[in-house]
Amino acid sequence: MAQGKKYLPNGTDKEIVERLRTEGCTIAQIVEKLGICYDTFLLHRDTFQDALKKGDAYKDINDLTKVKNKLLDRCLGEKVIEKEYTVNENGEQVLKSIKEKTVVSDMLIVFYLANKSDGEFVSINQNKLTINPSEFNLPNIIING
Q1: DSSP bridge partners of 80
Q2: Which one of 3, 4, 54, 56 has the fewest CB atoms closer than 10 angstroms to its CB?
Q3: How many alpha carbons fall within 13 Å on the CB side of residue 11?
Q4: What is the three-class DSSP state of 79?
Q5: pLDDT tens, 11-43?
């Protein structure tokens, strides 16, 4: 069986792995982009470990930032375009109307204020529930275990 060229990862490959992982690529997709087989990637796993970790960390930060921005958009009012379609006599779908409206989520506003206001806005529905295990007929294993 003929052997192919021996693969040696370089700095560019590490940068590619980090960038692809930041974009959310799987190992299989990264291997394909590098033009190597999965087994070869595994042989050099230690070489790529830092790039994978950095890529994952950047992806988590990017995803969190996107969610935060979306939450803020919904709190402040997000423009939504609604299109209404109808079917004409020929059976074709025809655009009937376009409405642009601003959607604000009251629940997200309350959540945002409660978490960002240093106690100025606090939920008044906070109930503390205390259960006395002796009031129930539970086995001792559950109570003491």
Answers
A1: 101
A2: 3
A3: 0
A4: strand
A5: 789 999 999 999 889 999 999 999 999 999 999
Residue 77 Rama label (left phi>0; alpha psi -120 to 50; beta): left
Q: Kindly report the pTM of this predicted structure.
A: 0.47
Angstrom distance (rounded) from CA 66 to CA 7? 37
Question: What is the CA angle 94-100-102, rounded to 5?
Answer: 150
Residues 8, 24: Cα–Cα separation, whole Å: 24
Distance CA(15)–CA(36), nearest Å, equals: 16
Helix or strand (DSSP H, E) at 78: strand 78-87
Residue 86, SS3? strand
End-to-end Cα spacing for the chain: 61
Cα–Cα dist 18/51, whole Å: 5
Dig out the tokens for 98 from the structure. 């376009």
